């Protein structure tokens, strides 16, 4: 099977996909003995996360992610992640809010999970939830990170930050607030956030560079203020 580890003739044949679909008590002991099977995929690219999402097994989803580090955006042969096969809002929420699933992934037909689920018309509540995540806007803050890890700027929701980047909210004194955000820096952030590869390796790398530049700029401004205060 495509994506499966080399077959070991010495071990018994176990269909981990059926075990995942049934949420069998035999699955986790097997995976702990054969951890590489946790990320295995069948000939269609179907994974254990797809099975857990489709058959509504939230605890199995969490275990596969936290214990076995299975990619929540693992794709099958149709380029569809587990989010495409969810049937309940609960599982969709876990994939997005806890496991950092990407709602912007498109399948081979150019559809996101929200678009595909809505077009099929069977699990409308899930499609409505995904729309809420996509369109949610901030209340009272021009740039915040909401419970889904999405950054909201004014009335525009920017794509989710990569897992290794966070936005920390805090307070500043009046003289620490710049009179105006550097237009060039703002334009670079907005341009990067609008790119389709924002969640990819190159998008994350460029975001880290921008964040580093911003932090260093703040540090330099702070040092300048401290020197000015001492002189005065």
Molecular structure report:
It contains nine helices and three strands. The model is unreliable at 1-5, 137-157 and 169-174 (pLDDT under 50). The N and C termini lie far apart (73 Å). By secondary structure, the protein is mainly alpha-helical. Helix 1 (16-22) packs parallel to helix 3 (48-54), helix 6 packs antiparallel against helix 7 (124-135) and helix 8 runs antiparallel to helix 9. Strand 2 and strand 3 form a beta hairpin. The protein has a three-stranded antiparallel beta sheet with strand order 1-2-3, with no helix packed on it.
Set down the secondary structure blueprint.
Layout: H1 16-22, H2 27-33, H3 48-54, H4 58-66, H5 89-98, H6 113-120, H7 124-135, E1 143-145, E2 151-153, E3 156-158, H8 183-193, H9 201-231
Antiparallel strand pairs: 1-2, 2-3
Spell the H/E element sequence.
HHHHHHHEEEHH
Largest sheet: 3 strands, antiparallel
Assign an overall shape.
Answer: globular
| SS content category | mainly alpha
Strand content: under 5%
Multimeric status of the protein? single chain
> Within the largest sheet, what's the order of strands?
1-2-3
Q: Based on DSSP secondary structure assignment, what is the total number of beta strands?
A: 3
User: How confident is the prediction overall: mean pLDDT?
Assistant: 77
Radius of gyration: 22 Å
Distance between the termini: 73 Å
Low-confidence stretches: 1-5, 137-157, 169-174
What is the helix tally?
9
Helical content stands at 40-55%
